[in-house]
Design goal:
heterodimer; A: 403 residues; alpha+beta; Uridine Diphospho-n-acetylenolpyruvylglucosamine Reductase, domain 2; Uridine Diphospho-n-acetylenolpyruvylglucosamine Reductase, domain 3; 5-stranded antiparallel beta sheet; 13 strands; 18% strand; B: 159 residues; Ubiquitin-like (UB roll); DNA polymerase, domain 1; 5-stranded mixed beta sheet; elongated
């Protein structure tokens, strides 16, 4: 067994595989890898080949690095490999805050990594530092109180989807978390990461192979929009699932930076500008989400449209919260539509009339349907209005069931 | 160009400890396949959709293509190579063989690990739970029916 492995590891390792980046020392692998001193004929031969073939010096890990690390001209060579960065792992929130206050724009924060790693693989971002906050324990619990519920930004989506109390009190939030993706992804992905995922567009979320052949769009710092001809702004779409559901409950988020903390409504976190979707300062960290417990009798629901039932971003979505008094008068009806622009949108500000047709009409008017996702814009816009109605109906049905 | 510094990484894979020096931009999948030569874990889409790179991190299925190797130090990683018991196949693997739940075999490591994690957590899953659990694993050959049957047979054994 070991001899076969040695051969594969020792000589056949070529430049296309990036394996030569690391040196391993382990019990299972062959002893020849363990001894650092090559035998004399090897030394002599390598010296000889260097002298005779100076144009082509012996292959070294450093050489592989320069090939791997530089901007890829040959796209296939760097395909789905990560760009170089330095890795930082803070032990607690304070340490994390001091790191981002030092490095600011050059550091990207990783929690589950399901969004960030993909964006780095596509070279949409190439941060100098990646800070993994996934192991900061103080940020990953759900605290259900009498007046409000606090969810740590690091809480895995699967925990939110699986918590019976969340499902009972905040059904839309549990439904949204459940529908984000398959269990393996929701095991890793966090609520904070889901909220702060960047806006998406078919003309932007592509590998270099595609983007190299396209004009630089507004999202990439250019001056044109490829999705809308002559578009004066960026039309990328915010495709997060959690934010619409949380906004339906009027959730707030806690943004911490070194020396200060602010709590803002989740709607204020969004700028509405696709090119820079978040009103978050470079040294701020999203640490908590606070959901006020709604008053009266209430229920909520989340509905989404996607291509694959298991793993896909929403192509249209809607969350609804309806609360009634004891004599069944509707006090609040908040409907939030998602994947319909660069930010989730609340119909009629804080609360609207619980009239299905009016909600569907307003959702249609509010939604932006641009042909920049996997389904046509006109269809997505219609589906936003359908889902807004369905979500509201499901919330009202939920109240009826509970009564 | 951004600076790259090698770091010492200690990984616990299939109950064995591996010490290595690697760049931090290496995913767990790359380290498992290229450095540890545990090629049972497959790479397909590389973006977390298909599930062929599934490994267990502390017993729960995770995408090794989206996981940085440096980030899973101190965690127990189980790959398909760590499932069999000596010369004998693991019961989940046996069930897959017996129910013809394998055709080309590319999705099988991920499928088997996902099924194993499901059965560890919930020894008696319903068909809906099985389908939900493997919903993140794409199989282009079997049409999933045989895979669900294989997992179901194990659930029934538990009864």
């Amino acid at each position: 067994m070991s001899s076969g492995r040695t051969r594969a590891g020792g000589t056949k390792r070529n430049r296309l595989s990036s394996s030569s980046h690391s040196r391993i020392r382990c019990k299972r692998l062959a002893p020849s890898l363990e001894s650092d001193q090559p035998s004399w004929p090897e030394t002599w031969l390598s010296w000889l080949s260097f002298v005779t073939d100076s144009a082509n010096p012996p292959f070294t890990p450093e050489k592989a690095l320069s090939k791997h690390g530089e901007k890829q001209n040959n796209i296939l060579e760097g395909h789905m490999r990560l760009p170089p960065f330095q890795y930082i792992e803070p032990a607690n929130v304070e340490e994390a805050l001091s790191i981002i206050s030092t490095h600011r724009e050059t550091v990207k924060i990783m929690a589950g990594g399901t969004d960030l790693v993909n964006r780095m693989k596509l070279r949409l971002i190439e941060p100098a530092f990646v800070m993994n906050i996934g192991k900061v324990r103080s940020m990953d619990d759900i605290d259900i109180g009498d007046t409000e519920t606090v969810i740590g930004a690091n809480t895995r989506l699967r925990e939110i989807a699986g918590a019976p109390l969340v499902n009972k009190r905040f059904r839309a939030i549990a439904e949204a978390a459940f529908q984000v993706a398959s269990p393996a992804i929701t095991n890793m992905a966090t609520v904070g990461g889901n909220i702060l995922q960047n806006t998406r567009c078919m003309y932007y979320d592509q590998s270099g192979m595609v983007l190299n052949g396209l004009e630089r769009c507004r999202k990439r710092g250019g001056t044109v929009c490829l999705a809308v001809k002559g578009g004066k702004r960026c039309f990328s779409v915010y495709q997060g699932d959690m934010a619409p559901a949380l906004i339906a409950f009027d959730a707030r988020c806690v943004l911490e930076k070194k020396g200060s903390t602010r709590t803002v409504s989740l709607t204020e976190l969004f700028t509405g500008n696709g090119a820079a979707p978040f009103a978050l300062e470079a040294d701020e960290l999203l640490t908590k989400i606070i959901i006020p417990n709604p008053e009266g009798i209430y229920s909520s629901a989340y509905r989404k449209l996607r291509l694959r039932g298991s793993t896909d971003y929403p192509l249209a979505s809607a969350a609804a919260l309806v609360s009634v008094t004891d004599d069944r008068k509707v006090t609040t009806c908040r409907v939030v539509i998602g994947a319909a622009g660069a930010a989730p949108k609340v119909i009629d500000g804080t609360s609207c009339e619980a009239n299905f047709e009016a909600i569907a009409q307003k959702a249609y008017e509010l939604a932006e349907g641009v042909d920049n996702l996997q389904m046509p814009g006109a269809y997505r816009r219609k589906m936003v209005s359908v889902l807004a109605r369905r979500a509201t109906k499901a919330a009202i049905d939920g109240i009826k069931e509970g009564m | 160009m951004n600076e790259l510094k090698k770091t010492a990484i200690t990984l616990n894979v299939n109950n064995e400890t591996y010490d290595m020096v690697a760049y931090p931009n290496r995913t767990l999948l790359e380290v498992l396949r290229d450095d540890l030569h545990l090629t049972g874990t497959k790479e397909s889409c590389g973006e977390g959709v298909c599930g062929s790179c599934t490994v267990l991190v502390d017993g729960t299925p995770a995408r090794s293509c989206l996981t940085l190797a440096v980030a899973v130090q101190g965690k127990e990683i189980t790959t398909i190579e760590g499932l069999h018991q000596g010369e004998k196949l693991h019961p989940v693997q046996e069930a897959f063989v017996n129910h013809h739940a394998i055709q080309c075999g590319f999705c099988s490591p991920g499928m088997i690990l996902t099924a194993y994690a499901l059965l560890t957590e919930n020894p008696n899953p319903t068909e809906e739970e099985i389908r939900r659990a493997i919903s993140g694993n794409v199989c282009r050959c079997t049409g999933y029916a045989k895979i669900v049957e294989a997992v179901k047979s194990l659930a029934e054994k538990g009864r």
